[in-house]
Amino acid sequence: MPLRSIRLLLLAALLPLAAMSARAQDVLIPMDIRQSNHLKAYGVAFWLLEQGEPVDWLLNYRGGSFLSAGFDRLEEELQVRGVYFERIGPDASARIVAEVESEEYNTATVRLETAPNIAVYAPEQTLPWDDAVLLALEYAEVPYDMLYDDAILDGALREYDWLHLHHEDFTGQYGKFLQYRNIPWYIEQQRKAEAMAARYGFRKTSRLKLEVAQTIKDYVAQGGFLFAMCSGTDTYDIALAARQTDIVPSEYDGDPVDPDALSRLDYDATLAFEHFTPVFHPGEYEHANIDVGPPPPALRNQAVDYFTLFDFSAKWDPVPTMLTQNHVATVKGFVGQTTSFRKRLVKPSAVVLAEAPNRDEVKYLHGNFGEGTFTFYAGHDPEDYQHFVGDPPTDLDLHKNSPGYRLILNNILFPAAKKKKQKT
Amino acid sequence: MYTLIRTFSLPARSWAGALLLAALLSAPFADAAGQSREDPQMARFRLADAFMRAGQFEQAIGLLEDLYAGAPRNETFYQKLKEAYENVKRYDEAIALIQSRLADTRSAALLSDLARIRYLQGDEEAARATWEEAVATAPADPMAWRVAYQSLVAVRQFDQAVSLLEEAREATGMPALFRVDLAWLCSISGRYGQAAEEYLALLKENEGHLDFVRARMTPFMEDQEALAPSIAAARNAVQTDPLYRAWRELLGWLYAEAADFPRALEEYRAIDGLENGQGSRLFEFALAAADAGAWEEAAKAWQEVLTRYPDAPAAPRTLAALGAMHTQQAEEIGERAFDETGQRIPAPHYERALVAYQTFLQEHPNHAMYPDVLHRVGRLQQDVFLDVGGAESVFLQALAAFPNTRAADRAAFDLAHIAIARGQLDEARLRFNRLVERLRTGELAEQARFDLARIHLFAKEFDAALALVDILDAHTSTNISNDAIALKILLLENRGPDSLDTPLRRYAGALLAQKQRQPLAALDSLDALLAAYPGHALADEARFLRGEILLAAGRREEAYATFAEIPLIHPASFLTDRALFEAAGILSRDPDTREEAAAAYRRLLSEYPGSLLADKARDRLRRLRDDEGV
Question: Considering the entire predicted model, what is its pTM?
Fold first, then answer.
């Protein structure tokens, strides 16, 4: 029996399936516990935007689901990426939208229309730690470009809607990894940073980084979306605050800290934090008292360490609602060089999105600056409780439903949202 | 008491002063009555030191200024005061302090310190001039250059430090001066070629430094930016003196680091010749190349060992390694000695492996590796060339000639499998039992226990098989525990419907026939089972096994039909997703049916999203989509 003739057997078996995938149907991508791969679902939403197909983000509806018009390629894409979806008829689709828009529920619809251009601030040099956002973008198959100091200073940011900072040290102290100072990656990192600083006319890396931080701040002021994690959060603000002084010990830049550094800190220049005190000890793996640090050893256990997401009004506060979409209300904690922010040092203008209960610690915050916004998420890798230098990167195939990673990916869709008039 | 503290005018000797001071500070002074009494100056110095440790530099400076004013020749007070000024960036005062000392002695150390402070102050031009002045104080003295270079390094002026050391060689007339320092400076400032040149020169002075040089270079060689210029430097050096072994070895190592194995081979070939290594260096190189997947260069190197040094100690190890490499290569590319219809086809890698092993056996009958190589020959004959008789005689030889060796144990294990293939189940049972009794524990013993359970299955002794797998199932840490669980489920769920367990007996018969490479007998048994018991719980497994046997026999269309009908006939079977996957796999091999293959994978993903094969199906679907635009 030739293969071509007997393949009818299989085609016969496929007929019921084909009949179901009618073009007229809509596709609902639920983001509750039924979802098989939350992270790839964000990638599909992004893919739809790239195809020019609008997506409705149903805030607080089944974990922040996505609704789109159905078509064959979409279904194939969902299948290939392993994303659970439901075909629904136009009536059901309209009912869902009506329900989400009704005043009875804390839900809202946000239309996503244009795929944002994404930039990740990272050096070309491979450093012995991973970047959770790069991992998330790669896994979700969301395209991005990598930029570093030179591109930012040369004005490349104007091409992008969204910029991510991760394990970066904007104070120019090379992450305060003094113990690695004789290891080639550290030597290389320092050499390249110094060469870059010299290229742009700065004697010190700290000055170069400050210039980069200020350029990024201008980008935000003009409408850019900034998302930062781990030490990319507090060191960014510390660098801005220290613009008129020197907070870098001689071990990193050859000369000591300005004796009047504390009195010269300018907290008006920062985005999220104020009244903090930098750590001047070169060997202490901490930049300032903004970071609360890891929990005490007895509590340093992912089974008991968690943070809770705040509930916002989807109709009144759509932005914080978008950023906190999740299928769970509590998320596993995770440690980083910056693990969580000391609450009393957070500026009142920032909105706290998540915090560690009863610990006076903020894990996730958001704020506006000028025409743009910033979101800071503390910790290094949501699925690697304590990521050490040299550890292998996290395999996200093992964490397809990671609530911690979902918070990162909420941020990349947020700039795609069509601005609606705020309800008053 | 102050006079007890020696003052040193030469900063180079300041370490001695510091040591003495430390000793004095740590020992309380005793009066005649034996009571502790501390010198007031020491107490103030200690307080100033404590202030500095606490970061209270202004308080420390007040105390130190007083102390220094009272003892301006005291080196310790001077150093501490300077350090305090630097810590609060009072560079003008630090400079004035140094200059007050310079009035007495214009030493290279003081001037270098002055240059450094001027640099920190931001006056780079004055700093440079001061460094020049520092080395000019004693241009023939290497120490003057050293202190200047160290102060440049302290402010991370590596490029200038490199230039200074180069100048030092000229000024002192010592071309080898600061060799290691310069190499290190060049490495950390990204001048990899120059660093390599320094290391090569160091090697030329003493080839015993090779390990040291490699250790210093290794951390930087992860980067292609470092490898290329280092190789270029080493290549140039070798051209100037091709007979210098250490250079060639460094070059060979650099080529290997860059995964340029053809060039590395040339170097190791030369090294082997230079040191009359009798192939040992080539052998080691080939091992490293084979580990890195550079099969061709590894094979070339080993062939050379065999051709040029047939009687050298490396020759037998080379034959064994060559055979192992060809076997591994054949496994990686899925080489087979017979096609799907059973026709013998060329299997060059397996054939070369067999030749290498047989040559070993002929030429090195007394070598320690002989039993192991003998066993390897038997496995090739059994598994690849399907020469069961030949394999059996080899295993028997290993068992008889080398009892109580690992090779003999494995030969006994393989002989038991040959007995199963021949239907001699009692003999197989005997051999496995002996092996279990002898070894008791370990992977081979566990595997033998599992095979004993399978023999019970083949012999239709289902209760006995179940009793054995129960024991194995309990050892969840062993590699075969998953197989044991699968066998246990088969035995528990498929008994009946009659008291003879006829369907299970037929299924076991098919399994045995499959093991004995008798596909027709296996298919007959399965067809009989399916015809007589179409609704039995084993029907889906029987159909799946049928598909596997047909596929292995090259009957792809029939295999496809068998797999494809499983979802239709047994929609609730646990094998449905696997059947769809296999069917899709067969379709995807034919360019005309790739669309249908994609449809089958999609169906698997739609209907069995939780399948263990879902990820593989997605990968294959992506591949079909990317390759074929399906």
Answer: 0.78
